[in-house]
Amino acid sequence: MNLTDFDGLSFDVYGTLIDWEAGIAAVLGPWARRFDASWTDEQVLVAYSVHEAAVEAEKPGLLYPLVLAEAFRCTGVALGFVVGDEEATALGSSVAEWPAFADSVDALARLKKHYRLIVLSNVDDESFAASDGRLGHPFDLVFTAETVGSYKPNPRNFAVLLERVGVVGVGEGRLLHVAQSLFHDHVPARVAGLSSVWINRRHDVPGWGATPETTGEVSPAWEFTSMAAFADAVDAAWGSR
């Protein structure tokens, strides 16, 4: 298998291209430390992670800002810390402000020379529009949780992706999935029969942060520590042809 064997790349966005942990921690970290100054951002992210995934699974039609708000409230209950309505709403509305990773825009521009770029993201349409702008509007096709009606790792998301990706000229067996989250992306991608690239953003940080630890079988075809490193490998592969 070679990186030149594909016509399209499907992307997770939050965690892979947009730094969702920084965005969530910017709200949850100061909140937790009001109750206990010893709490680190990493501890809060880990505490939060199971609740977001649970809300997404239980309420697949709930828009992402409302998922964030409800997961925040659930985290507060679990920790015994009070979450005000304004705080919950603030997290839900913060997605548009979450920063892109420093290498995302350039890497996407380089990858676009070789592939169709497709989004498969656990987000609502309005929030994604802001992130799309931060990333330079590089995508040929977009599937959000709002348009699909469910959240990854629900297999429906990958089924919809595979059913419709042909509209941008990606042939059967010619799609490669690119993501950070093993739980949300690599496990269901494998079940769907997709090869994948692991952008291991947390390679130098122990634990799983805002992503639940996976118990499913995972076998990415490639692993890189950044989007820049992935784009370098792609350029080298196409240049050697």
What's the structural blueprint in terms of helices and strands?
Layout: E1 8-11, H1 20-35, H2 41-58, H3 64-79, H4 85-92, H5 104-111, E2 116-121, H6 125-134, E3 141-144, H7 145-148, H8 155-164, E4 175-179, H9 182-191, E5 195-199, E6 222-224, H10 227-239
Parallel strand pairs: 1-2, 1-4, 2-3, 4-5, 5-6
What would you say this structure looks like, in words?
This protein has helices spanning 20-35, 41-58, 64-79, 85-92, 104-111, 125-134, 145-148, 155-164, 182-191, 227-239, and strands at residues 8-11, 116-121, 141-144, 175-179, 195-199, 222-224. The chain has 241 residues and is of the alpha/beta class. It has a 6-stranded parallel beta sheet with strand order 3-2-1-4-5-6, sandwiched between helices. It has 2 domains: 3-19 and 99-239, 3-Layer(aba) Sandwich (Rossmann fold); 20-97, DNA polymerase, domain 1, CATH 1.10.150. It is built from 10 helices and 6 strands, in the order E-H-H-H-H-H-E-H-E-H-H-E-H-E-E-H. Helix 3 packs across helix 4 (85-92) and helix 5 runs parallel beside helix 10 (227-239). Strand 4, helix 9 and strand 5 form a beta-alpha-beta unit.
